[in-house]
Amino acid sequence: MTAERAAPDPSKGSHPTPRECVLAFCAAWSGPDLDEVIRWLGYDIVYHNMPMAPLHGIAATEAYLRTAGPFERSHWEVLNIAADGEIVLTERIDRMTVRGREIVLPVMGTFRVRDGLIREWRDYFDLAAYRAQYPQDA
Amino acid sequence: MTAERAAPDPSKGSHPTPRECVLAFCAAWSGPDLDEVIRWLGYDIVYHNMPMAPLHGIAATEAYLRTAGPFERSHWEVLNIAADGEIVLTERIDRMTVRGREIVLPVMGTFRVRDGLIREWRDYFDLAAYRAQYPQDA
């Protein structure tokens, strides 16, 4: 994947701010454009949906994201965002469509961004609220 | 309650910043010092534990907080905090002791602070993670 990435290159010396990176990452979930989602993640990403086990590294994270749902459509609405250095905190409403049914999930997420790539991503939400909306029929 | 409050008085014209207010509020949970916790909340507070129904106003919020748990001890560890104007976003580990058993809960919370008082408070967490740790015996 690395060679294909169009993400900011640390060797170029100039990156969008951590806040800008996270906003672009959230915007990439509209669609979703999973290639664009994944290009914002560092190879050493630690991705943790807090109610579940954390995933370590880009391979595990990409494998999860490409099969999660799977989401026919998705859109993240960023309600609030604030940054402090490398850390960006978000409050969002994530919308995901699975087998024609829209799941609406209130989420807060923490991101650590270094050299223009997300290195840590932790999402906080109520897992039961997600599962209650997930379509049970095939 | 209003007359008893030692919280910052808008008429005095000078308040701690929203970030400072939220840090003081989080610190008041050490103990907990519920009088101090409550004095940081505005009369018009909307308090929403996202997995549950929102509470409107200081009376409903105070009644809930004074009976929640009840917590023999508590401590909030602020992992990350970032502010943007009136909005303060936090990532925390909340620890609460109920009947001798410590509950450890990863939480993110959004606060809106105006005139030195918290007007909106939304906590995002996995309700099942809380309930699984809550002591079942009397």
CATH topology of chain A: Nuclear Transport Factor 2, Chain: A
In round numbers, the mean pLDDT of chain A is: 92
**How many alpha or pi helices of chain A?**
4
Q: Could you spell the SSE succession of chain A in H and E letters?
A: HHEEHEEEEH
How many domains of chain A, as an integer?
1
Q: How much beta of chain A, percentage-wise?
A: 35-45%
Largest interface: A-B, 25 and 25 residues
Q: Output the radius of gyration of chain A.
A: 15 Å
The level 1 CATH classification of chain A is: Alpha Beta
**Which architecture of chain A per CATH?**
Roll
Characterize the overall form of chain A: globular
The main β sheet of chain A shows up as:
6 strands, mixed
SS-based class of chain A:
alpha+beta
**Assembly classification:** homodimer
End-to-end CA span of chain A:
32 Å
Number of strands of chain A: 6
The helical percent of chain A reads: 10-25%
Low-confidence stretches of chain A: 1-5
Question: How would you write the strand order of the largest sheet of chain A?
Answer: 2-1-6-5-4-3
Provide structural commentary:
The structure is a homodimer of 138-residue chains. Chain A is 25% helix and 41% strand. By secondary structure, the first copy, chain A, is α+β, with helices and mostly antiparallel strands. Chain A has a single domain (16-133), classed as Nuclear Transport Factor 2, Chain: A (Roll), CATH 3.10.450.50. Chain A starts with 17 loop residues before the first helix and ends in a 5-residue tail after the last helix. Mean pLDDT of chain A is 92; it is low at 1-5. The interface between A and B is medium-sized, with 25 and 25 residues.
